[in-house]
Design goal:
The structure holds two protein chains of two kinds.
Chain A (H helix, E strand, L loop, with lengths): L3 E10 L2 E11 L4 E5 L6 H9 L5 E9 L2 E2 L5 H6 L2 E4 L6 E5 H15 L7 H14 L10 E2 L5 H15 L3 E5 L7 H14 L5 E5 L13 E6 L2 E6 L1 H10 L2 H8 L1
Helix pairs in contact in A: 5-6
Chain B lengths: L2 E4 L3 H10 L1 H4 L5 H17 L22 E4 L9 H4 L10 E6 L2 E3 L5 E3 L5 E4 H7 L1 H7 L10 H9 L4 E5 L9 E7 L5 E3 L2 E6 L4 E10 L5 E11 L4 E9 L4 E11 L4 E10 L2 E10 L5 E10 L4 E10 L5 E10 L4 E10 L7 E10 L5 E10 L5 E9 L3 H8 L5 H17 L5 H16 L6 H8 L14
Parallel strand pairs in B: 3-8, 7-10, 8-11, 9-12, 10-12, 11-13, 12-14, 13-15, 14-16, 15-17, 16-18, 17-19, 18-20, 19-21, 20-22, 21-23
Antiparallel strand pairs in B: 1-2, 3-4, 5-6, 6-7
Classes of the chains: A alpha/beta, B alpha/beta.
């Protein structure tokens, strides 16, 4: 059974059609890259999988572990193993990273029937995962993303992913705005979290991230549909030639 | 014990004063008695405030003034063992604790403590008798009853309360804690009167708690006068955790001399009808007032904060920040008025009021107001009324946090900004704990809260903030 199966998905917001018949199958152990010009529905796809409510799914199906995902509340999706790395992580003044993550980890554990972690064990876990994404600063007392630099915010997304150990992670332009060192750290974090039983969907504009996170499949999303799929070499071709040749292919 | 029972109406109250005059005035100097007469005239002219007065537009006292109340004109004769009825829940909080029960000062040894360093703390009733010189210098001089019917009424009937005098150059390191308890099987109308005098270069921290134990109707009409002399400093924390049958009116008047500093924080957790009026006169140059407040209201509760800051001297500064979360059918009023006199150049005044409405039926009325007659000033004001940020909620929920806990985290974050202003660490931690409990609907005071919580889902907010 595929981990994620999207069948003829059609999504609109305020009656504007954004995704127009999208099909995608992701199996355990795979990394899929989704590329494409701006405004073609990449972030919408990520949001629909994560459970953002502003979008209306007009047609189609999203199956996760064989079960219908649409209609399940966002927090349950997270506890079932879905993780969205935000393109623009939200600043939440006054909510400390520690309280945030402790609450999240405990709710995940409770869902699995596990007791909540002691404060000591929890802090130990935080330290371990911080090292994984090379966060040196003391997150404990800082509010969620408040005053974080662009790079810190993105690293914080990967840190949260490490804490929650998802089965299906969608990274929405996690590489945008990162310098090459930060990019390597983010990619390293992802690679360390790769397991045979989980999968990643990496949304990106640039091939360079894919030098560090090697995808099994590359898809081009254009006008709400996947118009071309291939291996990692497709990313290199896009980098060299841009998107125009694909547009031409479609028109022809 | 001398007492009477009546519906608080203007004419009846005037008659009540005549009837019990000899008891009410038992400790008075000629000055205090004279003041009562003037105040009676003012009250007879003005009566209780009604919603036709602009500052009372959003708060009605009609329901609060309808029932019969008991008035006590002498303290309860049987000894009250305060430790049996009240225990402060702030552990490791060392304070000099003083208590009022049903409007009367309670003591073990002496009604008025005079420390070797000259500090005087204790019962106002006794201070009126034993320290007429300090009384006539400040009593009734800071609280203007001509414009305020309730302050006038308090001045007519006031018999007891807390009196604090801190002489020049004395810093009281331990906070003084005043607990005002209403504990009776009858409806009760009480009018505490407090006077706090800080001499030059002195320092005081005061924690004032309004609590109620039994659930009978009560009407508290309190008046506090605070004189802060040159370079003196006062931290004044007020905790209001009353049952829903309580009406609490606090009128606080502050007089600040040169380079003096005031930091006041009013934390309202529960109550029926609460109205806090704070009036600060920045009389001396370089004086600074920080006025903070937090209110967490639900069910049918109502809170009204009226702040009036008068910048009289140059180079004075004020900083006002009030935040509130309003749930169910509760309502809140904020009215902040900054007045900058023509001579008060280089004034800095900031004012902010932020509200979160949790339901469609919760109501808030926020009126920031600047009145500036000087031309070289820095002033700003802002007010917001909104809901919890949906983007932040989505972010939290996308990490597996349920809706209720996500809301709780955001509300807690919103509210603790005010609690963070508390400089006493144990008190701050305790208040943060109270905020969590209050937001969970578990704060101990209110049995009604339990009823309230039954309507909602079980709450899962298991973070022990103290351990992280």
């Amino acid at each position: 059974m595929p981990l994620l199966e999207i069948k003829d998905l059609r999504v609109s917001i305020n009656n504007k059609k954004i995704i127009k018949g999208l099909n995608l199958t992701v199996n355990e152990g795979e990394v899929h890259a989704i590329m494409g010009p701006n405004g073609t529905g990449k972030s919408t796809l990520a949001s629909v999988i994560a459970g953002r409510e502003v979008f209306t799914v007009t047609e189609g199906q999203v199956l996760y572990k064989g079960k219908d995902l649409l209609g399940i509340p966002v927090e349950t999706r997270s506890r079932e193993g879905i993780f969205l790395g935000f393109q623009y992580p939200i600043e939440i003044p006054g909510v400390s990273m520690t309280n945030f993550m402790k609450t999240a980890v405990d709710e995940h554990r409770k869902y699995k029937g596990l007791p909540s972690l002691s404060a000591v064990d929890f802090l130990k876990l935080m330290e371990e995962k911080k090292k994984m994404v090379e966060i040196q600063s003391n997150l404990t007392n800082r509010s969620v993303n408040e005053g974080f630099s662009g790079g810190e915010k993105k690293r914080n997304e990967i840190f949260q992913m490490a804490m929650l150990e998802p089965t299906l992670a969608i990274l929405d332009e996690t590489d945008s705005g990162l310098d090459i060192d930060a990019l390597k750290i983010v990619a390293n974090g992802v690679n360390k979290l790769r397991r045979p039983d989980n999968a990643f969907i990496v949304i990106t504009h640039y091939q360079r991230l894919l030098d560090y996170i090697i995808p099994d499949f590359v898809h081009v999303l254009f006008e709400g549909r996947i118009v071309k799929s291939g291996g990692k070499e497709l990313a290199l071709e896009l980098e060299a030639k841009g998107y125009d040749w694909i547009k031409q292919e479609i028109e022809n | 014990m001398k007492s009477a029972t009546l519906v608080p109406e203007k004419e009846l109250l005037a008659g009540l004063f005549e009837k019990f005059k000899s008891d009410i005035c038992v400790n008075d100097s000629a000055y205090v008695s004279g003041l009562r007469q003037k105040a009676l005239k003012a009250f007879s002219d003005r009566g209780f405030p009604t919603q036709t007065i602009e500052e009372w537009r959003s708060t009605s006292l009609i329901d609060s003034l309808t029932p019969e109340y008991n008035f006590y004109f002498s303290p309860c004769e049987e000894k009250v063992d305060i430790e049996k009825i009240f225990r402060c829940e702030i552990h490791n909080f060392e304070t000099l604790l003083f208590t009022q029960v049903n409007g009367w000062y309670v003591y073990k040894q002496s009604p008025l403590t005079e420390l070797p360093n000259g500090v005087i703390v204790g019962s106002m009733a006794t201070a009126i008798k034993t320290h007429p010189e300090l009384i006539s210098k400040h009593y009734g001089k800071i609280a203007d009853f001509e414009k305020n019917g309730l302050t006038a009424l308090n001045t007519v009937f006031a018999q007891d309360g807390i009196f604090i005098y801190v002489p020049e150059n004395i810093s009281i390191e331990k906070p003084i804690q005043m607990v005002n308890i209403v504990n009776t099987d009858e409806n009760l109308f009480i009018q505490p009167r407090n006077l706090i005098i800080l001499g030059k270069n002195s320092k005081l921290t005061l924690v004032y708690c309004d609590d109620s134990i039994k659930h009978k109707k009560s009407f508290i009409n309190s008046c506090s006068e605070v004189y802060i002399d040159e370079n003196a400093s006062l931290d004044f924390y007020k905790l209001q955790n009353k049952d829903s049958l309580s009406t609490v009116i606090t009128n606080s008047f502050y007089h600040q001399e040169k380079n003096s500093r005031l930091n006041t924080n009013t934390l309202t957790f529960n109550g029926g009808v609460i109205r806090n009026e704070t009036r600060v006169s920045l009389k001396g140059s370089g004086s600074d007032a920080k006025v903070y407040g937090l209110y967490l209201m639900d069910r049918e509760q109502h809170v009204d904060n009226q702040i009036y800051i008068d910048h009289i001297a140059p180079e004075t500064s004020s900083y006002e920040q009030f935040k509130g979360i309003i749930d169910d059918n509760a309502s809140a009023v904020f009215n902040g008025h900054i007045h900058v006199c023509r001579d008060a150049q280089k004034t800095e005044a900031y004012q902010s009021n932020k509200n979160i409405l949790l339901t469609d039926t919760a109501h808030v009325s926020s009126m920031p107001f600047l009145e500036i007659y000087a031309d070289d000033v820095k002033c700003s004001h802002g007010a917001t009324v909104g809901q919890l940020d949906p983007e932040a909620l989505f972010y939290l929920k996308s990490r597996g946090i349920c809706d209720r806990n996500a809301r709780m985290l955001l509300m807690y974050a919103f509210a603790t900004e005010i609690a963070n202003k508390i400089t006493i660490e144990v008190l701050r931690e305790r208040i943060e704990g109270m905020i969590v409990k209050r937001l969970k609907g578990e704060l101990s005071i209110c049995d009604q809260c339990v009823l309230h919580c039954k309507e909602k889902d079980a709450i899962n907010f298991e973070i022990d903030m103290s351990k992280i």
